[in-house]
Amino acid sequence: MTWSGTGSGAGSGIGRIDEVIHGRLRLGVMTYLADAEVADFNELKAALDATQGNLSVHLRKLEDAGFVTIEKSFLGRKPLTRIRITKAGRAAFRGYVQAIADLLGTGSQSE
After folding, report:
1. Helix locations, the chain, DSSP H
2. CATH number, position 64
């Protein structure tokens, strides 16, 4: 098997991996939201087996990149934080998945 990740520059190989998404917890958030579209904070925390502080930090990084929006409200007297994937986030996640597939040689490129 030939590893195709030897190219240099941001447009080829390993350089196409989005560092914002690539972190384990951020990748988990993006994977979850790519399917669910929106989730509340506690749902994500449980699904990803994350601590509240750790998840908050990683959600902020995704929000700063424009990949998710964070909506804070109340349900009765209880705070409710909902996280939603953005169009830019969905596009970035698609690009990330394609870059990984290309690196593994399972991308959509014909041989």
Report:
1. 19-22, 24-36, 41-48, 52-64, 87-104
2. 1.10.10.10
Starting at the edge strand that comes first in sequence, how are the strands of the sheet with 68-75 ordered?
38-40, 78-85, 68-75
Residue 35 lies in a domain: yes
The pTM of the full predicted model, rounded to 2 decimals, is: 0.82
Bridge-partner residues for 78, per DSSP? Answer: 75
The pLDDT score that the predictor gives to residue 70 is 98
Please report, for residues 10, 76, 90, 103, 111, the alpha-carbon distance to residue 21 in angstroms, rounded to integers and kept in the order given: 15, 34, 11, 16, 28
pLDDT at 8 over 80: no
What pLDDT is stored for residue 6 in this prediction? 46
**Chain CA centroid to CA 46, Å:** 17
